[in-house]
Write a structure and sequence with these properties.
This protein is about 75% helix and about 0% strand. With about 160 residues, it is an all-alpha fold. The longest helix is centred in the middle third of the chain and has 40 residues. It is flat, with a radius of gyration of 28 Å. The termini are far apart. The C terminus is likely disordered.
């Protein structure tokens, strides 16, 4: 048995190399394809066309039906874009408020790392929103109250009289 392995080791190494190269190439090709398809589907400029293609394929629409349905789909996509923009702004406010709450519990080095992390995530989200020509505006979160009196509204005079 050992003689057989020794005699054909080069063939086995070549087969293993071909298998490994195929696995690497397949993994890279799959990743590139998934990224391309994801960007295509997330791009709001394609939402109307994709929805109409899907409806036409699934429902076997006539030309007259397509003509009547297409404006409805375009109106819906327009509303969806507005929702995405509002959600993006709300996400930005939420994420910045969370960052502000986390910061007091960190040392200076950790704060810098947190800033870098948030900057990376926000930039990534901005790029996503830029697909639709919008931009993510991140307003600063409201200041955190220092004293309990700033949290609760002042009591009215009527409450003190009771």
């Amino acid at each position: 048995m050992k003689a057989w392995l020794f005699r054909y080791w080069k063939v086995m190494v070549a087969i293993a190399g071909i298998f490994f190269a195929g696995a690497v190439f397949g993994g890279v090709a799959t990743s590139v394809l998934i990224l391309k398809v994801t960007k295509e589907r997330l791009n709001p400029d394609n939402w109307s066309r994709n929805a109409m293609d899907r409806l036409e394929r699934t429902l076997d629409l006539s030309a007259e039906q397509r003509q009547k349905i297409e404006p409805i789909v375009q109106k819906t996509v327009g509303k969806s874009r507005q929702i995405v923009r509002r959600a993006g702004a709300a996400w930005g406010r939420n994420i910045m408020a969370a960052k502000r709450e986390i910061e007091p519990h960190l040392n200076e080095e950790q704060r810098q790392k947190l800033d870098d992390l948030f900057e990376y995530r926000v930039e990534k989200f901005r790029r996503f929103l830029s697909l639709e020509g919008g931009d993510l505006e991140l307003p600063p979160p409201p200041p955190q109250p220092e004293e309990p009196s700033q949290i609760l509204p002042p009591a009215s005079d009527q409450e003190h009289q009771e």
